[in-house]
Amino acid sequence: MTRAVARSHPNIALVKYWGKQNEQLILPAAGSLSLTIDAFPTTTEVTLDDRATADTFSLNGVPAAVGQTARVSALLDIVRAVAGVDTFANVDSISEIPTDAGLASSAAGFSALAAAAAAAYGLELDSRALSRLARRGSGSASRSVIPGLAVWHAGNDEESFAEPVNGPDVRMVIVTLSTGAKPVSSREAMRTCMLTSPFYPAWVASTKWTLDGALEACRDNDFTRLGRITELHANRMHALIQSADPPIRYLTPQSVAVFDAVAQLRAAGRSCYATADAGPNVVVLTTPEDAEPVARHLAELGETRIVGAGPGAAVIERGIEP
Amino acid sequence: MTRAVARSHPNIALVKYWGKQNEQLILPAAGSLSLTIDAFPTTTEVTLDDRATADTFSLNGVPAAVGQTARVSALLDIVRAVAGVDTFANVDSISEIPTDAGLASSAAGFSALAAAAAAAYGLELDSRALSRLARRGSGSASRSVIPGLAVWHAGNDEESFAEPVNGPDVRMVIVTLSTGAKPVSSREAMRTCMLTSPFYPAWVASTKWTLDGALEACRDNDFTRLGRITELHANRMHALIQSADPPIRYLTPQSVAVFDAVAQLRAAGRSCYATADAGPNVVVLTTPEDAEPVARHLAELGETRIVGAGPGAAVIERGIEP
């Protein structure tokens, strides 16, 4: 193979990834649980180029910044080492994440890249191996390899991959609040928490038992327990982040208002629980029945979009370039 | 003495009291630092009544609820045990804390009660002994015995009292945002944090070293360091509270907006740092020079009032009833 195209989708964590035990190999300090969603895919084409003297990377048709290209190249280096091939590649990526959606693009981006690069360089990787490879690009990308609910295990390089989890049929309402850039990148904020928060060791320990509880809730098909854990855990992640020195706060007054509105909806009988990643937007975990009314109610606070479980990363085209 | 009147003022903590090592004796898990302010005093009269068969307690001219009267009576029991007197008392208390100020009334209330009761029952207590006595009514009352900046030491019953601290000349801007009742009492929330937050042990440990830093900043007359510690520590307390199960959040969207505004004022060159207790109101630690402009700027977000260092609890009248 000298050319492959793969597509992958973002994922939203119910039990968060926040902290590494190994920065080089991107091994997480604790496991996590997420839903790969059925919206906002990234489609990435990797084409080997015998005459190239370096990798190139374009995003949405525009040559990417040096730092972004270096991260792409680093993942290609891993693929080339395994494949025993030296050839550089041209990488073209189209992200359908609206720039104002505030969703992290790296999970879909690096899982699509891993799938396309493996295929283009002729590697036959099973889902675990592909998840491990995607992880090297961006930790949460390991989960976007898997469709729907996915658990990403902590452990050593061999053990740390994502795999599917059976659980309740859920929907998510993404509430978009801000078009502004993040004040601090999640990679940087994670590092600050690890270095400065007195709560960090307890956060890691609690994430482990929280994940155990969430997996039990999935196994028991217990949406309420899963939702309760999701919101509790999101509060703890933002508490951890706020406890850094200097304090970091991703949640704006508007985000807090959405958490309040979700609590009110719950008091009124709706099944819905709020979470938020390293940004101001809030994602509401809900049921197929309650997704519409919840989205309708929250529309006065931000732009809403209902999403469900999406497919894992997949190669959608292969070919030998002429 | 059979009658005494004492007056005391609220205090605002820079390093917070949040967690007990002994609930019965109200011994804190860590020390704390506060400013007794020059506004909103409570004035309390204790009159021994030979013919009474129980203590009575009226607040602002209205007989208090049974639970409040029981807490007052419990403090009088301690005084009576030391004085070797059995006589019950009538307690009349006038609080000048506006009900919508959202300031805790128990610190001024129990320190005024301790001072008046000790005098009425004929005890001669020095400042340490009075602080220890006030502590038994409400932990933070131990600090309102002391004028201005006060450190309240953790330790056993003998060791846990407040005493004065020399430090920079500061002002506080109290920003009142809400007239609503607290969703959870601070006593209850503190207990929930102790029982359910995975961050609680680290909170206690970090409060200890935070207090050491704050006392160093006071000794060095270093307002900037003291302010920075104050805001960092407030963020950590609210992070701890948010990490409880179920999560508790005292800060409303409006509170968050004040924290943001304070950061902006600081970026514009003002010396100001935000803190908040177990409620939505924000208190801004600032300098004598910056108090006016800071208060003016924050007036668009809430009602503001500038306060400074106030006096400690003091007996203002003594007498033998006819």
Automatic annotation (TrEMBL), chains A, B:
Residues 8-161 form the Diphosphomevalonate decarboxylase-like N-terminal domain. One of its GO terms (biological process) is isopentenyl diphosphate biosynthetic process, mevalonate pathway. Signal peptide: none annotated. GO terms for cellular component: cytosol. The keyword Lipid metabolism applies. One of its GO terms (molecular function) is ATP binding. This is diphosphomevalonate decarboxylase. It comes from Candidatus Agrococcus pullicola. The gene is mvaD.
